[in-house]
Amino acid sequence: MLNSLHIENIAVIQRAEVDFAPGLNVLTGETGAGKSIVIDALGAALGGRTSRELLRSGADHALVTACFDLGEAEDWCRENGVDTEDGELLLQRRLSGDGKSSARVNGIPVTASQLRELGSLLLDIHGQNDGRQLLDERRHGMYLDRFGVPEGILEAYRQAYEAYRGVQAEVNRLQMDDEEKERLEETLRHRVEELDRAKIVPGEEGELSARRDLLRHAEKLTEQLDAAYQALYGDETSAVSLCGEGEYAARRGAAWSPDLEETAEKIHSARLVLEDAAERIREKQSELDFSPEEYDR
Question: What angle do CA 101, 64, 47 make, to 5 degrees?
Answer without folding.
Answer: 55
